[in-house]
Amino acid sequence: MLEMLFNGFADVISIGNIGFLVFGVMLGTVMGAIPGLTATMAIALIIPMTFYMDPVRSLIMLIGAYNGGIFGGSISAILLSTPGTPASAATSADGFALAKQGKAMKAMKMALLASIHGCLFSTVILILVAAPIAKFALKFGPGEYTVLMMFSLTIIGSAAGKSVVKGLMGGALGLLFSMVGLDPIAGIPRLTFSIPKLTGGIDLVVMLIGLLAVSEIFVQIEKIARGNIHAHLPPSATSADEKVSLKEWKQSYKTVARSSVIGCVIGALPALGPTLAAYLGYDMAKRSSKHPEEFGKGSLEGVAASEAANNAVCGANLIPLLAFGVPGDLVAAILIGAFMIQGITPGPLIFREAPHVVYGLYAGLIVANIVLLCITWFSFKWFAKVAQLSTTIIYPVVIMFCLVGVYALNQSLSDVWLMLFFSVLGYFMIKFDFTPATFLIGFILGPLFERNLRQALLISQGSFDIFFASPITWFLWIITAVSIFTLIRRNYRDKKTHKETEAERLEF
Amino acid sequence: MRWNESKAIQGCAIFFLVFAVILLVFIIPSTVKDVRTFGTSPRLLPDAVAILIGVLAVWLFFEGRGQRNAKNQKQYGFDFIEVRLVVITLAVVATNLLLIEILGYMITTGLSLGALMWLFGYRKTKMLIATSVVFPVTINYFFQYLLRLYLP
Question: Which of A238, A360, B41, B50 fits a disulfide with B24 by CB distance 3.0 to 4.6 angstroms?
Fold first, then answer.
């Protein structure tokens, strides 16, 4: 295996291959950073170019674009509070809060380091244990997925902020809107009001840009109306605000490592994706942090957690692809297309028929991270300078970026109108302290939860025993119960502390 | 228009309770057919979520009611001057969308960008015009020639 891996590196490290890899990473990063354009779009655009390339070159260029795209979303999340990709939504709260404190460079550098760690970790896992992990992933049926989704829904409580019931309400609304479209089992329209556009459901990116990005801009516009015009972000106060110190990295390392594992597990399970991984990683980090109150207000650990988890999906979602030819998500499905263009069929036989392609892909994943590190580390200063422009320039430009980005998804103005609807909804949610992030979580998990629940009930002919049928389901139920318990306990403690503080203040 | 936290929460709760009832009684039955051929009904989860919203609304109401005597409650509401600029921004964006297929992306975006910058208080005319021209031209080039995505 080592010899094959060295041969893979020898294939990858040539001037032509590195050049195409750099192009892929740069395109992916730029597209990931622009709200509305996604890593998936970057890969889809590169596919036609791969017709006339050799397999290793085409695959590493695609992987570079994917890596760059997933990371690129965090740049706009941190600088503009506008996640460039859904996977970076969990980064925007803490990342933007840090940027408002003049620590934009620190936040971006931590995001980069955590992303690279996550991706490299999952690549190592991919290389060493792809087959056993894929076999384990196959044991997940609809019953197991349903219970996993129930566990994932408990992160709504964690993302809720001060009021758990408001968070749950946001999550419930997200679940409701996720059901717009065709029923996943019967195939009939639901909640579409006979509008043809809604038959295809609501696109996640359209909802995300409206609910999280444009709504936040509307809230900021209120400050402009009060005459509060300033640079969008303050400059760094000290040189320490532009760096990640060794001490900060050490303090965050446990979080990064845990999130990388979470990202790997989620990536290895088909159909879950980097967004869920990011929120799960963030949630776990918040629960186990010594300072959970800092999350959402500028916690470097928060940025590290979400970025390590979402980038760890990059390598891990190739596990089911290579081991079984089953795409883990949309990106992996596009990669199957790229394989087939080259006349290669992913699956167990690929290790025998085209091992040089597999090991070239492994080497490409590792080199792509190094290229990403080199390109972005030195370009952060320019990104940060852009963010120091006045809000009177930044906000109109970002709004226009959002409009064109959403339009570009399906070349449909209906998507843009839908985005505006969600921006108004998000605006009202923020005004009344309902956390839009909980809506997003409900929206993402809703279809996964419903499809698996109903498939499970179909298989079991209506019996709920299927949700308790395997050791995996029992394990998932236990961690769900622990998650709910820690949430209730934390909520009770927070309320008690708040009451005691109020009582002391009144006495004083 | 301002409300204290307790009143605002109770108001939201009533809104959501009414919304849940409308969902259950009118919206879901009229937009989701109750097809039972495949075991579970397509209405299973919509109904469950509507009931959940109703239950959460009641919980929210009592949470708000519990805070009615709390001191230093946060104020929720809308300030006319602040909301006016938000509404105008929305109007500019909506007008952009209505005219985009008539006038084309570059013209409507240039005009909208300039209008928004002016409305937000940016008064450096040369920079305003430059941004309003350079941005849509650059984006149009990027999308049309590099990404092969055609804007209106």
Answer: B50
